[in-house]
C-alpha cells in the first residue's frame, strides 16, 4: 500500500516539474491551475522567498480553508505550529537543491494526529536557476488504518484457526468425561449416595457450560451455508419480545415494542436471527439493571429493514465500541466476549450488518440492517449462498 502512495506522489511531482508538451506554457513556474487542481495529492509550491504560490484543491480540502488564506504567505509562518518539519524540507530543497522522497510527517487533523507522506522537488526558471520548490503530499492515515486493521484481522484469523482446532480437540475427551460422570451419578443414585450424585450433576453442568463455549468458538470459525427462507421480521421481533418478557420482569426492566402494523420481509434463518436479537437483548439487560427501558423498533425503507434495540444502560466509550465485535473481548467478569462476534457473523451471513451508537452513562442503540425482500406473494424462488443473499430479481437471468 505504501508503494502505491509513493508512486502517486512521484507521478504528481514528475508531472508538475516536467509538464507534458500539450500543457502550455512549459515553464514550471506557470503551471496552469487546472493541472494541479486535478491532482489527487496535496500540491503546494513556494518561490525562493518561501512565499506560497500554489495551493491546490486537495490541499484546500485537507486544510479545510480556501487557498486565498495561504497564497502569498511565508510557508514557515503558516506551518510553524502544526508541522514545522515541512517548511524545513522546502527550505532545504531550495537551498541545497535536494529532493525529499516519501518523508512521513504527522499533523493535527480533526482532533487527532494524522500522517502525511511528503515529497519535494526544486523548481527552475528558464535560466536554470532554482526559483522555488514544489511538494506533493498524501494523507496516508486511512491507508495506515486499513493496514493496521488487516494486520489485526490476520492475527484474529490465525487465532481463530488455533481456537477452532483446540475447541475440536477438547470436545472429544469432554464427551467421555461427561459420559463417565453420568455413569458415576447413576451408580451413586443406586447406592443412595445423594452427595456424590449431586457432585456429578454439578460437574455435568460445568461440562455443558464449557461445551456451549466450544460450540460458540466453532460456529465463529466455520462459515455457514444455510438454507434461508422468507421471514416476516416483525413477527420474529414480536416473538423474541414475548420470549424475553419473563427475564425482563425478573430484572426489573421494561420492554417497549415499537412495531409497525405491516409485515416486513427478509431472507433469513429464523433461529439465527432470534439468537442475534436475544444476545443483544441480554447485553442490554446486563447494561441496565432494574428501572431500565429497552425499546425495540422495526422500520424499513425500500431496500433495507432496520431493527433498533435501544437501551438506557451504562453506554460505552469509543474505545470499547471499537472492540466489541472482536472475539473474546468482554468487560464482564463472567462474559466470554463471543456474543457480539457471533451476532456480527450471523448478520454478515444474511448480507446484513450491525451499527452501534452509544453515549457513556446514557445508553446504547444496536441497529440490525437486513436487505428487504418482497412479500411472499410477489417473491420468486430464492437461492442462498454464504455471505450474501440473492433473490432471482437481483441475479442475472441464466444463460
Ligand atoms: N448494550 C450494551 N451496553 C453497554 N455495553 C455493551 C452492550 N452490549 C455490549 N456491550 C459491551 O460489549 C462487550 C462485548 O459483548 P459480547 O456480547 O460480545 O460479550 P459479553 O456480553 O461480554 O459476553 P458473552 O459472550 O457472554 O455475551 C461487553 O462485555 C460490553 O462491554
Ligand atoms: Mg453478551
Automatic annotation (TrEMBL):
PAC domain location: 99-152
Signal peptide span: none
SUPFAM superfamilies cross-referenced by the UniProt entry: ATPase domain of HSP90 chaperone/DNA topoisomerase II/histidine kinase (SSF55874), Homodimeric domain of signal transducing histidine kinase (SSF47384), PYP-like sensor domain (PAS domain) (SSF55785)
Major enzyme class: transferase
Molecular function (Gene Ontology), one example: phosphorelay sensor kinase activity
Keyword ATP-binding among record annotations: yes
NCBIfam families for this protein: sensory_box (TIGR00229)
Protein's name in the database: histidine kinase
Naturally occurring in which organism (per UniProt): Sporolituus thermophilus DSM 23256
Amino acid at each position: 500500500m505504501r508503494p502505491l502512495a509513493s508512486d502517486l506522489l512521484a507521478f504528481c511531482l514528475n508531472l508538475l516539474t516536467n509538464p507534458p508538451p500539450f500543457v502550455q506554457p512549459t515553464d514550471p513556474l506557470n503551471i496552469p491551475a487546472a493541472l494541479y487542481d486535478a491532482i489527487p495529492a496535496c500540491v503546494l509550491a513556494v518561490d525562493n522567498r518561501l512565499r506560497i504560490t500554489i495551493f491546490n484543491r486537495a490541499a484546500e480540502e485537507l486544510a479545510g480553508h480556501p487557498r486565498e488564506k495561504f497564497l502569498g504567505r511565508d510557508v514557515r509562518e503558516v506551518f510553524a505550529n502544526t508541522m514545522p518539519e515541512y517548511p524545513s524540507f522546502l527550505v532545504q530543497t531550495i537551498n541545497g537543491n535536494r529532493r525529499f522522497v516519501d518523508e512521513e510527517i504527522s499533523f493535527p487533523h480533526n482532533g487527532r494526529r494524522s500522517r502525511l507522506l511528503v515529497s519535494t522537488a526544486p523548481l527552475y526558471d528558464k535560466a536554470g536557476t532554482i526559483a522555488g520548490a514544489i511538494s506533493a503530499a498524501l494523507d496516508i492515515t486511512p491507508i495506515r488504518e486499513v493496514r493496521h486493521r488487516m494486520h489485526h484481522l490476520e492475527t484474529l484469523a490465525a487465532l481463530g484457526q488455533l481456537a477452532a482446532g483446540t475447541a475440536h480437540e477438547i470436545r472429544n475427551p469432554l464427551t467421555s468425561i461427561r459420559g463417565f460422570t453420568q455413569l458415576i451419578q447413576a451408580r451413586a443414585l443406586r447406592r443412595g449416595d445423594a452427595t456424590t450424585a449431586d457432585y456429578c450433576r454439578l460437574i455435568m453442568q460445568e461440562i455443558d457450560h464449557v461445551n456451549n463455549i466450544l460450540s460458540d468458538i466453532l460456529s465463529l470459525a466455520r462459515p455457514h451455508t444455510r438454507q434461508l427462507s422468507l421471514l416476516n421480521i416483525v413477527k420474529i421481533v414480536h416473538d423474541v419480545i414475548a420470549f424475553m418478557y419473563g427475564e425482563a420482569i425478573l430484572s426489573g426492566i421494561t420492554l417497549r415494542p415499537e412495531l409497525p402494523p405491516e409485515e416486513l420481509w427478509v431472507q433469513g434463518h429464523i433461529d439465527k436471527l432470534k439468537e442475534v436479537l436475544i444476545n443483544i437483548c441480554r447485553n442490554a439487560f446486563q447494561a441496565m439493571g432494574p428501572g431500565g427501558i429497552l425499546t425495540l423498533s422495526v422500520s424499513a425503507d425500500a431496500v433495507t429493514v432496520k431493527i433498533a434495540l435501544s437501551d438506557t444502560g451504562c453506554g460505552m466509550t469509543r474505545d470499547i465500541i471499537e472492540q466489541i465485535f472482536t472475539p473474546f473481548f468482554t468487560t464482564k467478569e463472567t462474559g466470554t466476549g463471543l456474543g457480539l462476534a457471533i451476532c456480527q457473523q450471523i448478520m454478515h451471513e444474511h448480507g446484513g450488518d450491525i451499527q452501534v451508537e452509544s453515549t457513556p452513562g446514557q445508553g446504547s442503540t444496536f441497529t440490525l440492517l437486513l436487505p428487504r425482500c418482497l412479500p411472499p406473494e410477489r417473491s420468486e424462488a430464492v437461492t442462498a449462498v454464504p455471505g450474501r443473499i440473492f433473490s432471482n430479481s437481483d441475479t442475472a437471468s441464466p444463460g
